[in-house]
Amino acid sequence: GHLDPGSHRKVLMKTGLVLLILGHLNFITGALVHGTVLRFVVTARDATSLHYGVTNSASVIAALLTISSGVSALLLSRYLGPAALKWALLALSACSSLCCLCCLLGLLVAIGLTLGNQGRVLLAPCSIANIALVPVPSECPFDPTRVYSSTLSLWAMSLLLEAVEIFFSTRCLLLSLDLLHL
């Protein structure tokens, strides 16, 4: 059913703020993973590390799309008039939902691969056979004992954020459809 403009404004404002916050959190998470681990790991030689890199870049793009959706939802909550804004929200929230969904799947694969290879790819720059046997070698760009668990927990957090982003982006999408009377 159609909501009255007042409640549309409220819902749009809340959703927009949530998307802004989620987008920023996801952006930070992606940046952390990149800064602490992936910038040492990603090489085009190795499919797994390439997958990590692509997924992480996609996460950052998804985060930016989410932030843009949030901004347009907030703008729309202020000015319900312009059709261009409604279409912008429709397009951005659709792209954001899709991109987040792709990231969600990509992250699941990344987590699966990492658990499967027990972090070997993440620790490739350290050139050690087994993490458990070795104290921190001097040539490693990061602490190898922590990198596995921290990368996985950051990815798990990212995964959670993506899922919530999909929910709220889809909500924005439905709101914009409603506002456009489609």
TrEMBL record:
UniProt feature coiled coil, ranges: none
A Pfam entry, by short name: BCLP
Keyword Membrane included in the entry's annotation: yes
GO cellular component, one term: membrane
Keywords: Membrane, Transmembrane, Transmembrane helix
Membrane spanning stretches: 17-37, 57-76, 88-113
Subcellular location, record wording: Membrane
Major location (coarse): membrane
Recorded topology in the membrane: Multi-pass membrane protein
Record family assignment: Belongs to the TMEM54 family.
Protein name from the UniProt record: TMM54 protein
Species in which this protein is naturally found: Erpornis zantholeuca
